[in-house]
From TrEMBL:
Protein family according to the UniProt entry: Belongs to the YkuD family.
GO molecular function: carboxypeptidase activity; transferase activity
Protein name as annotated: Uncharacterized protein
Domain SH3b: 130-193
The entry's keywords: Cell shape, Cell wall biogenesis/degradation, Peptidoglycan synthesis, Transferase
Organism of provenance: uncultured Thermomicrobiales bacterium
Pathway the protein acts in: Cell wall biogenesis; peptidoglycan biosynthesis
PROSITE patterns linked to this entry: LD_TPASE, SH3B
Alphabetized SMART domains for the sequence: SH3b (SM00287)
Length: 331
């Protein structure tokens, strides 16, 4: 036994006296051990780890989306209630996220991640946590989150192929959706390649939309046949490729939303949103309106890059469009 160390039996109720009776060296060792345990518990209470298919909600107005983990240059401003996709984190107190097609970093304290996408929900679909499946329903809603109350972004027809990218949560599976993540009801996916009824016949001619940025003419096509044509108000910046321009290029429709909704870009309301340029957040929509749906006095003016149409014409475009439809913008 080391000289100067005395071991004593600790009687019931004598814990404090026994601690005092320890040598100074042993007391110091006990205190260090307790400190390590406390620090480990605190470290375990940090932000939740991002997992595949997870999303989150911004909890404060005016939150900066930073360019990189070591570059705090703001590249966008986010507001309370807005949704983001989580890619990585937390690292150095930040998450890597995607916000309306732009990838950057946000401080963890300003983000509320959704519940973990692993476990806690319904059981994983056949074939593991991901893989190819097809829609086994006449019409399957594509939602912003794993909930029946989440916003509906789209609907898929019977037989539509999807790529599942994670485990089910609350009965919903995360799917790859035009570079982002969306959610569909797991019960209406088929994993063995069969569906309840034959898929509807495909349209023989491609339906697509042409925009002449020089004249403002919007033309709906079926193959090479003109279906309809309308005049639209385009971006105020005529420099082709500028952020606030209606930029030339080939695009695909990624979101359709017909009800009245607020847009912070115009500080007003629009209907019949058909998004096609994710980088510039451009799309077709109605002339701007007030909260009651009335067209504003300047509602037909130039835009920040979108294509604004008379309300009835905007509805015709949104009825014609479908997710993935080709949009060609040219001079």
């Amino acid at each position: 036994m080391r000289q100067g160390t005395t071991l004593r039996a600790i009687p019931a109720g004598g814990t404090r006296d026994a601690f005092i009776g320890l040598t100074a060296g042993l007391r110091k060792l006990v205190l260090i051990s307790l400190a390590v345990i406390v620090l480990a518990a605190v470290a375990g209470a940090g932000p939740s780890t991002a997992v595949a298919g997870q999303a989150g909600t911004i909890n404060t107005d005016g939150v900066s989306l930073m360019a990189d983990i070591d570059d705090t240059t703001p590249i966008a401003t986010m507001y309370a209630g807005e949704r983001v996709d989580l890619f990585w984190g937390p690292e150095a107190g930040r998450y890597e996220v995607r916000y309306y097609g732009t990838v950057g970093w946000v401080w963890a304290e300003y983000l509320d991640p959704d519940g973990s996408a692993v476990g806690g929900g319904s059981s994983a679909p056949a074939g593991g946590s991901g893989g190819s499946a097809i829609v086994d329903a006449d019409s399957l809603n594509v939602r912003a989150d794993a909930s029946t109350s989440a916003a509906i972004w789209d609907s898929f027809d019977l037989g539509t192929p999807v790529e599942v990218i994670g485990d089910a949560v609350n009965g919903f599976s995360p799917i790859s959706y035009y570079g982002g993540t969306a959610w569909v009801a797991t019960d209406y996916l088929s994993w063995n390649g069969t569906v309840s009824a034959p898929a509807p016949p495909a349209v023989s001619a491609e339906r697509w939309i042409d925009v002449n940025r020089t004249t403002g003419l919007v033309t709906l096509y079926e193959g090479s046949t003109v279906y309809a044509s309308y005049w639209g108000s385009l971006g105020w910046d005529s420099t082709d490729g500028a952020y606030y321009s209606t930029a030339s290029g080939s695009y695909r429709v990624h979101r359709i939303h017909q009800p009245l909704e607020y847009t912070r870009f115009a500080n007003a309301y629009i209907t019949d949103w058909v998004g096609f340029d994710q980088y510039r957040a451009n799309g077709f929509h109605s002339w701007t309106r007030d909260a009651a749906g009335n067209v504003l006095p300047n509602g037909a003016g130039l835009t920040g890059g979108c294509v604004a149409l008379e309300p009835a014409q905007a509805r015709a475009v949104s009825d014609f469009a479908s997710i993935g439809m080709r949009v060609e913008v040219h001079n």
